[in-house]
Amino acid sequence: MNRKKIVAGNWKMNTNLNEALELMNFIQNNSVSSSQVEKILFPPFAFIKSIKDALSIINKIKIGAQNCSEYNFGAYTGEISANMLKSISCDYVLIGHSERRRYFNETSKQFSLKIEQALKADLKIIFCVGENLEQRKSNSHFNIVKTQLNEVLSHVPKDKINKLVLAYEPVWAIGTGETASPLLAQEMHLYLRNVISQIFSEDLAQNISILYGGSCNSQNAKELFDCPDVDGGLIGGASLIGHEFCKIINSF
Ligand code: PEP
Asked: Whose CA is nearest to atom 1 of ligand 1?
């Protein structure tokens, strides 16, 4: 088993350039080394290049984009392609976030195309899945995430699965202050690993990192990360507070 521990911060549509650089510097100077935990920041598109250029070569932080286009190039005003991201040395792209599903009506078909573009550009991907409150209450959460995975991952070639990280983000826990209990997170992460094993193989399922996301903070990170199938976290709100985010990284 060769699973990477990862803590990623999704800054969403927050910070200006100076704030973004300050936050990155704080995290760089106050978090454990990248050989222990892979650290990834997802700043707004506009700041990726400046942040990349300002990174120290020691304690390297990986940088990702919060989205990419499903198209390669051309007349798609306002879109940013995976190739463009690669050309500014971006490492990762976030695909399938619940806010993209909910506010921008993005579908599994689009996520598949975006993943295809990202893989062609040699970017790594964090692909997010998760059920909403209604689905959890009606006990359909396992079926929902299985469908979300199957619809997208069945289009990913087996030899590219090592470019993917999964994030389980129950929508009812995102930005609400309500976190999944370690028991509940572990149950779902194990289930996701089984689904991956069915789509690909047991070996690939054991080697893919699965992150938990949803109101993760410095108080609850350790008990979540201690779960055997939780390989780290995708952090929203708490990643905007330098000392909070560093405590989360350092809680492994
Ligand atoms: C997210 O949006 O990916 C997220 C996990 O947000 P938060 O940590 O704020 O719940």
From this structure: 236
Q: How far is CA 42 from CA 37, 51, 240, in A?
A: 16, 10, 11
| Residue 131: exposure state from Cβ atoms within 10 A (0-12, 13-18, ≥19) | buried
> Residue 63's beta-bridge partner residues?
41
- DSSP per-residue codes, 78-118: T---HHHHHHTT--EEEES-HHHHHHS---HHHHHHHHHHH
Q: How large a percentage of the chain has pLDDT more than 70?
A: 100
Among the listed residues 70, 106, 131, 169, the single catalytic one is 169
Based on the residue annotation, tell me whether 243 is a catalytic residue of this protein.
no
Computed on alpha carbons and rounded to an integer, the radius of gyration of the chain in Å comes to 17
CA–centroid distance, 235 to ligand 1, in Å, is 5
The pTM (predicted TM-score) of the whole model is 0.97
CB-based contact 17:48 (threshold 8 Å): no
122-166 pLDDT, tens digit per residue, is: 999 999 999 999 999 999 999 999 999 999 999 999 999 999 999
- Is residue 169 part of the annotated active site? The answer reads yes
User: How many Cβ atoms from other residues are within 10 Å of residue 139's Cβ?
Assistant: 9
Q: Is the CB of 126 under 6 A from ligand 1?
A: no
CA 216 / ligand 1 centre spacing (Å): 7
Q: What domains are defined for the chain?
A: 5-249 (3.20.20.70)
Q: Is ligand 1 within 6 A of the CB of residue 102?
A: no
Distances (CA, A) of 199 to 147, 149, 157, 203: 12, 9, 11, 11
